[in-house]
Each structure stands twice: as structure tokens, then as C-alpha cells.
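INTERNAL AUDIT FORM
Audit reference: QA-55
Scope: verify that the stored structure record matches its stored sequence.
Auditor: D.O.
Record contents follow.
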Amino acid sequence: MLLAATTTKQATLTAIASEYVEVRGIQDNPTISSALMLAQLSGDMPIEGYGRQDARYFVKTLIDRGLRTTSVRRRLNCLSAIFNYAYAEYEIVGRNPFLRVLVPKEGVDRVKRVAFQLDELKPLYDACIASDRRLRWAVPILGETGCRMAEVIGLRQADVASDGSMIKITGHNARRLKTPGSEREIPLVGYAQAAVQQLLETSNSDHLFSEYLRDGTVLATHAGNTLNKWLKRVSKGKTAHSLRHAFRDRLRAVECPIELLDALGGWSNVKGAGTKYGAGHSLEQKRNWLEKIAVLAED
């Protein structure tokens, strides 16, 4: 619910964070969880009550807890966005205390993600398709569409084309998208189409992964943790996100235009305002490029 009739003296950090997420139409976390962390450390106050000392204490506490500096920066960015929103919407005069906060030794502890190699994908997909554990069927979909974990775990039957040739990534009550630009249509090729077909044939709910739906919310993090535990064991430490990295590498290798590549993966495009003009890429264009990199069962 929007807080238009209130003032920041009445609206606390967590209330404004909820409003910000609703207005933007984005998934709750990590924005809401970052606001809750700050509220636990400094109190859930009106925005004007926070200062630079709270930002520095937030950073120190997260680092002391063992969070990587990249994770700390991600949460700082979430808080900065909340404060920017509040300062603009409530006409607060002052400086955002979470803007340009320094993180000690930022990036030194970064762990480079290792992408799956092409020759690793087919045996992995075969093992997943043959498994009686439905969650593992998400792996070929992740690998062949470049989707995020939450996007796949939140799929509904209504998001699949009647002929099984395409999925639509769109927000719904049980799962919001990471960004508004994440909404897109993706053709299904090869193993991804086979995996979606198996899900449709075995699903007794509108949600394809109904086992990861609780109280009307998609438990994407829980699903991801379970899947990654298995993936790390069978693929030398790689995770589901490694599939998304491999997807981008594979498209880059066949010289897919960067604008179309970003459209397929729901990545932010940095090419400028011109990329937002027009109707975007057709399903046929997308399918042509996905077929160039598709891992096929008969290979």
C-alpha cells in the first residue's frame, strides 16, 4: 500500500522499503532484507533519522559477519535506492547517507564464477532429465534459456505456450521479477523444451514447481540452495548461476548481437536509449540464435 497520505515522520524505513518495491514492481529481496538488516542494527526509524554513522556501522557489521564485499555493496546499493526514493518522493533536503559509502578492501575477496564448459552440459542434462527429482529438471531450462533461478521455479502452466514452444517470464503474485526489464518471452529448444514438457505432464498444479510454493510465495532461494548442493557435488563446485554465465558465453561465441543477447537473458542493456525503441526482437529472431547454441539430445 502506498504511503502518499503520510509523511516521513510517520513512515519508517521498512514501510518505505515496502512502498519502493511495490512502486518499482520488483522482487522483495534483497531490497526488503537489506532494510530489515539496517532496522535491526539502528532501529526502524523515519528516513531522516539515519546518518553516515549508520551506513558505516552497517558495513562494519556485515563484514564482521563474514559477508563478501560484493554482497555488502549489493545491500548498500539497495539501501541507497530506498533512500533516493524517499528523498525524492517526500522532498527531504539533505544528502543520502548511503550514497558512495566506502567498503574496505572491496573486491579483494571476489570469487570468480566458473562457467560450465560445452562438453559438460549434455551429460549433465541427461542425468537431470532421467532423474525422478523434479527440481533437477530445472537445470536444462536454466542452461538453455539463461533464466534466473526464481524465474524458472516460479513458472506456471499459463506461462508456457500451448504448443510448448515458448515460455513467458512475467511477474505474478507468488513471484515478482528482479527488474521490470526482466519480463520477456523465450523460445524453448532442445533439452529445455523436453524438461518443460516433463514438468507439464507431471504437474498437478498451475505452478510447475508447486513443491516450492508456500503460502502463495515461490521459495526460489530454498530451491536454489537444494539444487546447488547437488550441482556442486557433481560438477566440481559449479552452481546454477554458472549455467547463466555459460549461456552468455555460448551466445557470445556465435557472435550473437549484444542487444539480443541481453534481451534473452533479461540483462540490463547499456547501449543507450535507442535500444528501448521499437517492439524488440521477435520470437523467430530469438529462436534462430538459441538454435545455434542448443545442446541437442541426439548430439
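Auditor finding: record pair retrieved intact. The chain has two domains: 13-89, 118-293.
Action required: none
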